[in-house]
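ingest -> validate -> predict -> emit
validate: passed (alphabet ok, no gaps, 192 aa)
predict: started
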Amino acid sequence: MLQFPAAPGPASLSILGAMITPAVLISACGTLIFSTSNRLARIVDRVRELSRTIEQIFTAEGVQFLEERHAELERQIATHALRSRLIQQSLTSFYVSLGIFVGTTISIGLDTWFHSIPWLPSTLGIAGTVVLFYGCVLLIAEARLALRSVKAEMEFTLKLSARYGALSGSSPEVREKSSNVIGRMLGLIRSE
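emit:
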């Protein structure tokens, strides 16, 4: 007669259930690490683009509004430096959380065998969650900084556009219409 293995008992199911929670958090850390790494790569690409732009405006002849452009590019680079520090700190937090959650899973298994460290899985789980939360707070700060930077860049572009419109020699009606459109757009940028 065919014998099937006995079904796992309640103790082994509770151990398996306890090990699933850190696994879910490990997966969450992996997703956050991936998306945050992509954000860092975009910052690096943008800084490289700004470096090329700085080189172009200082080597080209007859660039209008050179001081304003230079100041804006310096502001953007400073903002990206701050953003990259926030991203680096959040990535570090996510990697630390990942390690802590792996440690939590291991400690659950060890406690099952040795029954001598029942406090360790909970302690590690709480510590990993706190570090994960800190990394998320850093990402919120970075996202807000990125949004402010984009708004400032749009505002600079619109102001530069208005200055070019004033230099273009177009009719007063065209300049007024352009000024009204730019004013409305600046108002929208500032209100968000």
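The chain has four helices and no strands.
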